[in-house]
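INPUT
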Amino acid sequence: MDFLTALQVLDSTVRLSTPLLLACLAGLFSERSGIFDIGLEGKMLAAAFFSAAVAFTSGSVWMGLLAGTAASIALSAIHGFASITFRGNQLISGVAINFLAAGTTVVVAQSWFAQGGRTPSLPPEGRFQTITLPFAEALRDVPIAGPIYHELISGHSILVYVGLLAVPLTWWVLFRTRFGLRLRAVGEAPEAVDTAGISVVGLRYAAVAIAGVLCGIAGAYLATGLQAGFVKDMTAGRGFIALAALIFSKWRPWHALGACLLFGFLQAIALRYQNIDLGAFTVPVQVMDAAPYILTVVILAGFVGRAIPPRAGGEPYVKER
Amino acid sequence: MTLMKSLSGAAAALALTAGAALAEPALIYDLGGKFDKSFNEAAFNGAQRWAEETGGEFRDIELQSEAQREQALRRFAEAGLNPVVTTGFSMATPIANVAPDYPDTKFVTIDGYVDPEEHPNVLSILFSEHEGSFLVGMLAAMASETGTVGFVGGMDIPLIRKFACGYAQGVKAVDADAEIIANMTGTTPAAWNDPVKGSELAKAQISQGADVIFAAAGGTGIGVLQTAADEGIYSIGVDSNQNYLHPGSVLSSMLKRVDVAVYDAMSAGADLETGVQVLGLAEEGVGYALDEHNAELISDEMQAQVEEAKSRIIDGEITVTDYTAEDSCPALTF
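OUTPUT
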């Protein structure tokens, strides 16, 4: 593999990792507050559809992003309503959201655009264009650093940079602010938070809403950043890979970045080299596709340290009487 | 007693209406979905044309999961719909299971193969995709400046390899030194609906020098065609005529006249002749698309060469290897 090929694979890694990363951070906020969220996939899908639909009708990609995020927050609100207010089963609520999104996006798309559950192709102003960072062209010919800057760091859509910036921001919010401390506490020992006179319900709703925003950006990136429109089921399981990444990273932001980059890298490698010939034997492409799940199982089985989820995760909080 | 009479009368009337509905045909789409802009949509267009021309009506259903295949077949057969037309190779086994139970219903499988000896009420329609792919492969090789062309398949199944293999042979027929990069999107049905992955595959192929990419990947192909248009290279559509999606970038489309097959089956109605039907270049079952959207991309010389190859394939002077028959490809290794 020569230098340029390596750069192209890494470039592809960045593009493929971004939706995973945003969804993974969404799950991080939600699960750190004690609300399991397997509806990441559905929220991304709904956001992908509404961002594409509104970007097409309004001709503005920013309006699309707004609409996609709003749709995702609406689904988050349903999840919160079912699992926080009504103390329902969080897993079932998440599954319901996935089904709801898979069905409604196609039905609404069909009734709005009559193109069989897809949106029309977006015009250029309805898509996030790639951004060329300052000096990228000028520095192009500098050996080593030039191509890295030009190919790998520059030339992505703005949402990629948003995703990358979300990592330190998440870390700062969760570990350096009062809100973050309370949010983590509510996922570990909600009764303690309640005793301190802070609203468990309010904190959990806040966490779920943040998850909605991040999933919304992830979905918008798929439909208006990477693609030019919505196609049914276009998330293709990325929400679940993000969940795997969340467990793999043991619910920590920087590790989440690493896990998502790793999973994105595996995908990029699988796309570039279908069957990898190692001389003695060939690694079939399916192994690469399954790798995120295999790695997650390995982590869960406790081979590489234990993955301990937030203690109050999955448990609806009932005030003591 | 009178009540009893009127009840049985109503039952008889119901039975009569059920009998009248016998002529209605049914159409079952495969998992790609009715409006995939490609294979299933072509089937829908054929049925739509039949409905418009005859004023008849047809019933259709989009499958959502593997488990629904037999269920949908039985539903339609029990409702007295005839013939029941299905798309996709995966319907072959369910049809073989269901057909003996409904001997009066004619089943049509497009792309699937059901033994005609065992199941006399089934018509298997197969297309010579390798021949059509051969022609677009020639176009790709002639349009390519880098000498490298790409292929993006959907789910890795023998049928899609048949496309790839025919395409590769067509490319090699024009330029024996040409390099062909062939990738499959995945091994599950999700591979038909992942345009993001399609885009990444196209980008990876472009960075390896490909300047014409043939997408035989259902909804995933939308992403391939989009990326090709964004990056300013040529792409080739599949099944339906996809030239209009990105005029000036879609070089041509490998047509598979699923619409004609569906139209013919529905027109024949209950008198449909069963057995095995193979639609190739000679029957105009496959071909390449030429319209106002790609007229500028296909020069007269290119067209002449392809037309010549076409007639030579029909005459049997050129034989295009069929991957599904040989299980290997002379021009491409998978």
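end of record. Residues 12-22 of chain B have pLDDT under 50 and may be disordered.
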